[in-house]
Design goal:
592 residues, Rossmann fold, alpha/beta
């Protein structure tokens, strides 16, 4: 919790103003019982109506000033709380964005969303409560004790007997409620995960007729969260009545002893009533402090979850002696050289064989190299090492003759554009989605990139053309249309290295043929690394690298691999239905 206090620093004056206004409210509230005693003893007892009227006006005036003090405290505490929450949420988001894939894999998307919303909100709410209740209640308690001692030491002594058990119950509540609130937040994570997966995959759910199953799954998570809330509520509901019982017993004791003192003429009725009010204020201060401790307990659980993310150090960071990038490189792109030297990789905490083992190959400037292999052979993992989504656990990856770990991340990633397996689009227009590749691009540049990606014609078929709104994640577009827009976005950047990670899988053969031809013409100053499943997508590449279980089993162009690589032959046979090995021996197999 202490680690989050630094995000309050910019709002120190707001945090300071809240207690100042609360002091005004508490001081005026503490005067009220004395006014009441004066009305009873000197006004009612002596029949002095004028005194009663004046004292009532004083009570109204001080009450009005107390309201102003309370309102000021509420305003400044809310202002500090909202600003603190915004600052903390922004810092947490920046932290998440700075983490590499190795770290974000540890936290689920649903859990990160919960931490950014509910957990931050809980800490923010508790700050506001602390600025009000944890300022008001101790001041009210101490002020009440002083006022009670000024009236009668014996009655105030009753209070000293009540404080220890109330403090014990409050601390017990705090001690045992914190793990319960941690479980609540974890169950919220699971509920959000179920909700997110179902909303994202609702088409799959309906296509497979699994709505009933998913309803039961959601009900199970929802009921688990409700049951945990109920268990926590049962614990809290048992503790709070005990605290109330102790308070009521104290008030009865004060009334009983006070009655004897009035009968003996040691105190007046008004003083006993004032004492009852002070005792009530003091005991209610303890009770509210218990409520605040409960909120603090829940905030502690949320703060621990936030701190777990904030304390996570990214494994992929800029080197202290980062390789400088020449100004000429940033102004005028040149095709990049890429080299994998004895590269191995294993995911953090994963068992079994490495995903990649001893990978060696290179890409010359302007060369188009394709990587082919079965699902799970390590193709996507290979390309994730280039922009340093992960770092190789063995060997090294070089771009333009320099180890990628020696670049600043921004400089390294500025050299390349990447089209991922899943074409992610954002809510907005077609133009806005393509312009993600280059924020300063003109409309002419956007349309040119779309033409190369074979997207211009279908975009212009829309009523609003490039101003057409695409739904969240591109839901209003087909898979092939989304892939072509994602390729246009990557091309707009004019990178030195273009990485296509199975990004034409949803495009029909004829459109893909035109796209491959336009890429060859438009990407003369780019090196291309293409991941693919289909032979038709890679047969015209300058070189093909065949992966199997993370190991390179063949390299060369299409005709060479047909003669020399059995794995490549099997892939071709599975897609064409022809006996490639026999035909290649008789003179080769033609692939257009």
């Amino acid at each position: 919790m202490r680690k989050l206090l630094r995000y309050m620093a910019p709002y120190r004056w707001q945090i300071a103003m809240a207690p100042l206004f609360m002091i005004i409210e508490v001081a005026l509230d503490l005067i009220q019982p004395r006014f009441m005693a004066r009305i009873i003893d000197d006004g009612v007892g002596k029949g002095d109506l004028r005194l009663i009227g004046v004292t009532c006006l004083l009570m109204l005036g001080t009450s009005a000033l107390a309201v102003i003090g309370g309102a000021g405290c509420t305003y400044f505490s809310s202002l500090a709380g909202q600003n603190f929450g915004a600052e903390l949420r922004q810092a947490l988001f920046r932290k998440v964005m700075s983490l590499s894939f190795a770290e974000t894999d540890r936290f689920s998307t649903a859990s990160l969303i919960t931490r950014l919303t509910q957990d931050v909100g809980q800490v923010q709410h508790t700050l506001v409560m602390c600025l009000r209740m944890l300022v008001r209640q101790p001041m009210m308690c101490l002020g009440g004790i002083v006022m009670a001692l000024l009236i009668d030491m014996r009655l105030a002594g009753i209070l000293l007997l009540l404080v220890p058990p109330i403090l014990f119950m409050s601390l017990l509540t705090f001690r045992y409620s914190q793990p319960m609130f941690t479980l609540i937040q974890e169950k919220i994570d699971r509920l959000n995960a179920a909700l997110q997966e179902n909303l994202a995959g609702i088409r799959v759910v309906k296509a497979f007729g699994r709505s009933d199953y998913e309803k039961r799954r959601f009900e199970r998570e929802n009921r688990g969260l409700a049951n945990q809330h109920l268990r926590t509520a049962r614990f809290m509901s048992g503790m709070m009545p005990l605290i109330m019982l102790i308070m009521n017993m104290g008030i009865l004791a004060v009334l009983y002893v006070g009655g004897w003192t009035v009968r003996n003429g040691e105190l007046t009725v008004g003083e006993v009533m004032a004492m009852v009010n002070y005792i009530t204020q003091i005991l209610f201060s303890f009770m509210f402090a218990a409520f605040v401790l409960t909120d603090f307990s829940r905030a502690k659980a949320s703060a621990d979850r936030i701190t777990a993310v904030m304390d996570t150090e990214p494994s992929v960071v800029d080197p202290e002696d980062a390789r400088p990038v020449a100004v000429a490189e940033t102004r005028e792109r040149h095709a990049a050289t890429v080299e994998f030297r004895e590269v191995s990789f294993r995911y953090p905490g994963a068992a079994g064989a490495p995903v990649l083992q001893g990978v060696n190959f290179s890409i010359r400037p302007g060369e188009r190299v394709a990587v082919l292999g079965a699902t799970g052979s390590g193709k996507s993992t290979l390309v994730h090492l280039l922009p340093r989504f992960y770092d190789a656990t063995g060997g090294a990856v070089f771009v333009d003759g320099c180890d990628v770990r020696d670049y600043r991340l921004s400089d390294l990633r500025d050299k390349m554009s990447m089209v991922l397996q899943e074409s992610v689009l954002f809510s907005g227009t077609v133009t806005e989605n393509i312009r993600w590749g280059k924020s300063t691009a003109s409309q002419e540049e956007i349309e040119e990139a779309a033409r190369v990606a074979q997207a211009h014609d279908f975009v212009m078929s829309f009523k609003d053309g490039y101003e057409t709104l695409v739904g969240q994640r591109g839901v209003t577009l087909s898979g092939g249309q989304k892939q072509r827009l994602a390729i246009a976005r990557a091309l707009l950047k004019k990178p030195s290295l273009l990485i296509l990670d199975d990004s034409m899988s949803a495009i029909d053969s004829e459109t893909e043929r035109r796209l491959q031809a336009s890429l060859k013409e438009a990407c003369a100053n780019m090196s291309i690394l293409q991941i693919a499943q289909r032979i038709s997508s890679v047969s015209n590449a300058d070189r093909i690298v065949v992966l199997q279980d993370g190991v390179i089993v063949g390299q060369g162009h299409h005709a060479e691999l047909l003669r020399s690589c059995r794995v490549y032959q099997e892939i071709v046979e599975s897609q064409t239905g022809e006996d490639v090995s026999t035909r290649s021996e008789k003179g080769g197999l033609r692939h257009d």
